[in-house]
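Blinded run. Sample ID left blank on purpose so nobody reads anything into the name before looking at the predicted structure. Input follows.
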Amino acid sequence: MTWELILFLAAAINGLILSLMFLVSDSKRKRFLGLYLLMFSITIIHYVNYWGQVFSSPAPITWLFVTSNWFMPFAFYYYIRKGAKLKHLPFHLISALVFTIYWVSLSFFIQASHGYVPVIRTLLPWVKIALFTAYGIAIVRSMKFNMINRLFLVAYTSFIIGQIAYFTSLYLGFYTLRLDYIICAGFVILTYGITYFGEYSFIKEKVKPKYSTSSLTKEDGDYLVQKINSVLEQNKYYKDPDFNLSSFAEKLGVPKYRISQALNAFSEKSFSELINEFRVEEAKNRLLNESSNHLKLEAIGAEAGFRNKVSFYKNFKKLVGSSPGEFREEHMQKSA
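Blinded prediction complete.
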């Protein structure tokens, strides 16, 4: 085994360890990052074995290696897009499951001599690239553009570009193993490097860099976040359109910078994002209540605490995935 393959194998093992750390996290978002890293690491291991012919794996193991990267795009999508709903997850699994069924069939039932198999094998890489690209477009259209999300988008985009470069080099005849190494090395450096610099709360138990000089520990931060949510649920201060961080800090008896600090570091959202989530949930409950059927949508938004129709519709669509009117109509049809 060459030194390049040893480095790639070490990177894959490192990725497996990272993925396990994220998979056991309390954050659903980070668990999807863990799934993404797990699939990425399995893919790297597959390439190392393909290049070095280290061992001849049984068909089921080969199937696992080959299919893993088909699960990466939706895992990345759910990691980046906070508004993605778990109830929609089965639909996102369709493409990966279809390919899995195909590969199992190819491995166990279909003879490679059949004429359509080479055609399918030629088309599949481009189908995969199209799938990654489609998810990338969906993410760009819906994501919140902060520094970390931008960095992860760079890694994701580089994967697509690398795949295109790899398959193009194969078809045009200028493929070399060295080019393959370079492309793969770029994936590894970007993905794992950004993971370390962007998502390392499993290593550092205090707050994120913005608040690194604070004495707020993870235990204190988690307790404060729980208290914030509990007080809001019980008192429903958010129903007042004029409710803000300053007034809440006064009611809670906690400095407002400390509230922002805890929410940003330990719930990955700002105070305004949290309040909008409560308001949207309040609006959803009212829309589901038959006694509110006579109320206009704007009135329901106002009762939930939104200052105007635009803010109500924008936040509802962002968090629920449909407009208030669509949500109400869908529920009424189910109840009919």
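Unblinding after everyone has recorded impressions. The radius of gyration is 24 Å.
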